[in-house]
Prior knowledge:
By secondary structure, the chain is of the alpha+beta class. The chain has 5 helices and 3 strands. It has a single domain (about 5-115), classed as Arc Repressor Mutant, subunit A, CATH 1.10.10. Helix content is about 60%, strand content about 15%. The chain has a 3-stranded antiparallel β-sheet. Residues about 1-5 have low confidence and may be disordered.
Amino acid sequence: MSTQDRSDDRIALLQGTLDLLILKTLLPGPVHGQGGARRIQRQSEEVFFVDHGSLYLALQRLEDKKWISAKWGLSENNRKARFYSLTAKGREQLVEKTSEWRRLARAMAMILDAPLED
Length: 118
């Protein structure tokens, strides 16, 4: 599959969805921004692609809400990077937002899988 074909198969992320994915990505431990974006892309089997602009706006928004915290460190290629961690408040939000998303997905599935009415 060419790069063009793959980009056509990607799905744009809504703001709340991106926030949830970032929180989930940080659950195992601290990660720098691009590492988190790559993890989302990899775990979604290349369906989700998080562009830099959206990623860093979301990280700043989550940090402002105190759902994540950030510290400077060195990345795997020895470059200075901010590493983001989930806070206790962020863990609570992850549970709440995951529940909301599952409820939404269940409702969508009920509608999409329902037999057609006359």
